[in-house]
Amino acid sequence: MKAKSLNIKKLDLSIEWDATKLRNLMANAKKLGRDDVYFDAVRQIARIEGQNIEDPLEADFAITMRALEEALTAESGQTKRLNRTRQKLKRAGVKQTLADLAVSPTPSLGFMKLVEFKMGDMSAEALILRYKSEFDDETVGAARKRLEEHGVALAG
Fold it and tell me: What whole-number distance in Å separates Cα of residue 90 and Cα of residue 118?
């Protein structure tokens, strides 16, 4: 059965905006051992979170947070929310929150989980590189170093 599931063509989930359908797809992909489809569905569910946020950096970080919450929830079987990160966002704003995550001497649990889930390209550090003109050189350097140390492909 596993060999048969590998022959299924890759789905384009970028046009699906129904979270219920995407969650059903995630469950079926998990049963069939299709991690590629599973994580594509997680990414698309996350995109729903950012679709109405005007600032591109804020939208991308909202997407990152939702992707991590979805993956953590699926892993544990219990709803997981990044409450402390959301509180910090309200206090310090998106740029400072991202910068603090990147310059921290140790990677956050969220970063490590995103890498484990093969979504390191959605991490705070990856967002900093994508929006590097909005951050100082120290923050960009710390983000680049962490991504390199953990084998995450660098953007730009």
Answer: 28
9 pLDDT tier (thresholds 50, 70, 90): low
Token code pair at residue 146: 């962490």
Q: Is 106 exposed, middle or buried (0-12, 13-18, 19+ CB in 10 A)?
A: exposed
- Boundaries of domain holding 119: 8-79+93-149
147 Cβ partners below 8 Å, 6+ apart? 120, 123, 125, 126, 129, 154
pLDDT digits (tens, 9 = 90+) for 38-63: 888 888 888 888 888 999 999 999 99
Fill in the DSSP letter of residue 34. Answer: -
Our count of domains for the chain comes to: 1
Angle at 151 between CA 138 and CA 44, to 5 degrees: 95
CA distances from 67 to 4, 26, 90, 113 (A): 28, 13, 19, 11
Q: Please indicate, yes or no, if residue 112 is contained in any of the structural domains.
A: yes
Q: Could you tell me where the DSSP H helices lie in 77-155?
A: 83-92, 94-103, 109-116, 124-130, 137-149
Q: Give the pLDDT band of residue 70 (cuts 50, 70, 90).
A: confident
